[in-house]
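Please check these two lines:
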Amino acid sequence: MVQAWREPVALRRATPRRMTDAVQAAPRRRLRWLWAAALVLAVAGVVAARLRPPEADALRPQAQPLTRTLQFSARVQTPQRVDIGATVTGRVAAVPVKEGDTVAAGAVLVRLEDDEARAALAQAEAALQQAQARRDSQRVVQRPAADAALDQANATLATAERDLARSKELVAQGFVSAARIDEAQRAVDIARAQRDSARAAAAAQRERGAETVAADAQLQAAQAAVQVARARLDQGVLRAPAAGRVLLRAVEPGQIVQPGRALLTLGVDGPVELVALVDERFLGQLQPGQPASVVADAFPRQPFDATVQRLAPAVDAQRGAVDVRLRLPGAAPTFLREDMTLSVEVVTGQRDAARVLPLRVLRGASDGDRAEVGIADDGRVRVRPIKLGLRTLDRVEVLEGLADGELVLADPGLAEGARVRARLLPEVQALGARGSVSRDMAGGASPMAGFGR
């Protein structure tokens, strides 16, 4: 009994220690279980990470406005420059124009001293008057006088012939001696000779006679001399061949000028042209009729429009550039000057709504109208051929090969067939601002602040 009673006491004394040990062992077991679970999860995560496809940036082709422009420098050039020079040697008497003046056609630009030329003209005009008087006298006086002399010679010859006939009758009848016939015959011969001379003189005075021809020739020579003298006088006055503007004045009053030396340069009025040398690499982008915006470097706040008019048929081999001419659609701005430096931006391509991709996503060479891109198809990389359209510096238009909603991989180096998990990029990060303009620089174009379309 004692023993039975003591055992519960012993048990009661041992129970707190055992309970303490049990309580202390439970957290340790839970901690081991936690560590084991964490290890399992870690191993599972590593395995899952190794088995999971890698992420790759992707984008969807976006429909947006696309504009490509080409910038280059140009200069103002009038269609025609005329160098004005003297054709005779002389001293400059006056230069009534200065550089920058606008002149009308026929306006006096330079006047030479003309005293000698005026005297020569007066002498030639006097000779002309003399020749005219001689011709008038020949027609009014000499021609009627010759006709009258011919009539008189014919009458004298007729009288002499009648006297000869009577003399022969009288001799035959014995009234006069035979010597009378000789005298009458001699009178007839003299009258006939006078008649022939008068006839020749009258013929010379007629419309196509020698005297008339000589008088006409002398008159024509005198008229030609007057024209030469007047032309020499006119050569002393240099006039504008057409309306325009004086670009250069290289003469002053008192100078002695020689033929062949340019005294002034005149820019003839006409449609103003803009002339530029553009790198031949951009020749394929330029076409006649393309619109352009122009800014003068001296007037950056006053842009104006122009149009590509023509391209040179040949390339400048030394400069590797092609000559491009632009024409203004209307009147030129008043501030334009010859040889002024301009900045030109030509719209070489424009789409209102194009399916656009950045050039960086194209695989391999893409200089033509064909290229390849990688797309995400059912978790794998697939290479897709596409047809290209308008190309800019950083983006390109896709004409064929992509459907709406397809994801194009941004990394062109991903191998075909590789597993991939596409991560869609934001639109701005993928393609940049919508409707932006791509500007190619050619021909040393200067900066065009605030000039974009």
User: Anything to note?
Assistant: The two ends are 114 Å apart (CA to CA). Residues 1-7, 444-453 have pLDDT under 50 and may be disordered. The longest strand covers residues 299-316. Helices lie at 2-51, 115-173, 179-205, 210-235, 427-431.
